[in-house]
Design brief:
binds zinc ion, 6-stranded mixed sheet, 17 strands, 5-stranded mixed sheet, 13 helices, about 500 residues, elongated
Length: about 500
């Protein structure tokens, strides 16, 4: 989260944003248009787009267009001058191979980007906010490119699609639905071998690029620490049999809140976790919290306030030039989707409980139960989703720990251990975990390979064997077990 902006109760836009907008309108009417200076240019390179941000001393009109032979993008700024060195811009990983600038018509600025590939340009202006002044944003989308590095295998996608349909039909419980459960089962089960598919975990590092998120007293940025924790979680997930991670963002760039859930859905994620670090305007609060979506209202005042702040990210990241004004349809759709979301929410709360339990072993808990609030990033109808505030970056002690690699690792392990516990108990039908569970039931003398975060009592509970019997069967004296060790699971 970031800052302490309040929303206007009438139009749901932040008051500060509105007053900035009104002021800029008044200024435009009252004064002749002054010359704008480009004080800085920033570039964010994402897998599916590049974003160029011009920091301006005042608002300026822009004209953006493509030219061929050689392929280039021209950005004309009226009544503007350049007050920064474009050669210092790091073009690495973007579609831009070179940047040039010149004076146009005596008073205008022309910036020319040489392009290494096709782009679809889009531009918009952003008014000042807490972090930046007037900005011109030029987005270059890469046609046909996915926001994630390795899109999901189409066969896995099909299986997952059928599972979702079957689960939904099961929940709705209609006659028609029952037959679709059966047809899904016949496709995925008897004749063909079990798909043993991976459970897909979508990992969303909050904020990014233009939006730093909360900033700690020593200058630690939320967007940086959450990306590090997300990458550690990714390694945990990918290292475990039957799981696969999808990174929603894997670099320092911004992705819109709705786009984040869209990517998770495109990737057929089984679970979506958004990782954040809390902040407050006093240094004292500390501890971790876990949030699920609320359909009615926030469980607490803090939860409400936090959701409002997190939902502001799009205003800072500036994903959409027209902001939320044209979102009326989306709101209506959201209400309809809420009906489907009830079942998903139960799963979210269940996973949230497990995650909170594990986090409580690593850090103090800010709230001892899974909180609920209207986070936009959690609005996925069929994917259980959680938002985890790993700690308070505004607390000097917690800020220091959040930067520490070993501590980040413990947080990541706690997150994974919680969600794995849930999926081991409730594996999706076509998953490897479901196959393992069913296979273990049917054969005698099973074995289990110990995974990071396992405890003896959990392994015993999962296999419905008393701990004493499990210890006896494996000649264990204490409770110490090690990762990779293979336990014999006796029949109870
Ligand atoms: Zn945040």
């Amino acid at each position: 989260m970031s800052g302490s902006r309040r929303l206007c109760r009438w139009c749901n836009l932040p008051k500060r944003w509105l007053s900035a907008w009104l002021t800029s309108c008044l200024v435009l009417f009252a004064l002749p248009v002054g010359a704008a200076e480009v004080d800085n240019v920033r570039l964010w390179a994402a897998p599916d787009h590049a974003r160029l941000v011009f920091d301006l001393s005042t608002a300026a009109d822009a004209n953006v267009f493509l030219l061929d032979d050689p392929r280039r993008l021209v950005i004309d700024l009226e009544q503007s001058g350049l007050n920064t060195d474009l050669a210092r811009l790091d073009l690495e990983g973007s579609a831009i191979s070179e940047v040039r600038s010149g004076i146009r018509d005596g008073t205008g600025l022309r910036v020319v980007l040489e392009l290494a590939r096709d782009v679809e340009p889009r531009h918009f202006s952003l008014p000042p906010n807490d972090q930046y002044g007037h900005r011109l944003v030029v987005d270059m989308e890469y046609p046909g490119e996915s926001a994630v590095e390795n899109p999901i295998d189409p066969i896995e996608a099909m299986i997952r699609e059928q599972e979702i349909a079957a689960e939904r039909a099961h929940r709705e419980g209609t006659g028609e639905a029952t037959s679709s459960v059966e047809s899904a089962d016949t496709v995925t089960q008897p004749a063909k071998p079990h798909p043993k598919r991976d459970i897909i975990i979508a990992i969303d590092a909050g904020h990014g690029g233009e939006d730093p998120g909360a900033i700690g007293p020593s200058g630690t940025r939320e967007k940086d620490v959450v990306l590090e924790i997300a990458r550690r979680l990714q390694r945990q997930v990918d290292g475990a049999d039957g799981f696969r991670a999808v990174m929603i963002r894997d670099g320092d760039y911004y992705i819109g809140l709705r786009q984040r859930t869209r990517i998770a859905r495109e990737q057929k994620a089984d679970f979506f976790v958004s990782i954040h670090a809390d902040a407050f305007n006093s240094p004292r609060p500390n501890g971790s919290s876990v949030y699920a979506l609320s359909q009615r209202g926030a469980t607490s005042e803090t939860a409400q306030w936090l959701a409002e702040s997190e939902n502001q990210a799009d205003l800072i990241g500036g994903v959409d030039g027209s902001l939320s004004l044209k979102d009326k349809d989306e709101v209506l759709r959201g209400v309809l989707l809420d009906l489907t979301m009830t079942a998903t929410l139960n799963d979210s709360l269940s996973i949230g409980g497990q995650v909170l339990d594990r986090l409580g072993r690593v850090n103090r808990l800010h709230k001892s139960q899974v909180e609920q609030a209207g986070f936009m990033v959690l609005k996925s109808p069929d994917i259980p989703s959680l938002l985890v505030e790993t700690g308070f970056i505004s607390n000097p002690d917690e800020e220091r720990r959040l930067r520490d690699g070993a501590y980040q690792q413990r947080l990541a392990e706690a997150l994974f251990s919680g969600l794995r516990e849930h999926f081991q108990r409730n594996p999706p039908p076509a998953s490897l975990l479901a196959w393992q569970r069913d296979n273990q039931r049917s054969t005698a003398g099973n074995q289990y390979r110990i995974q990071p975060g396992d405890t003896l009592s959990e392994i015993a509970a999962r296999h419905q064997v008393p701990v004493a019997q499990l210890k006896q069967a494996n000649e264990l004296n204490g409770d110490v077990i090690r990762v990779g060790q293979v336990l014999r699971i006796p029949r109870s």
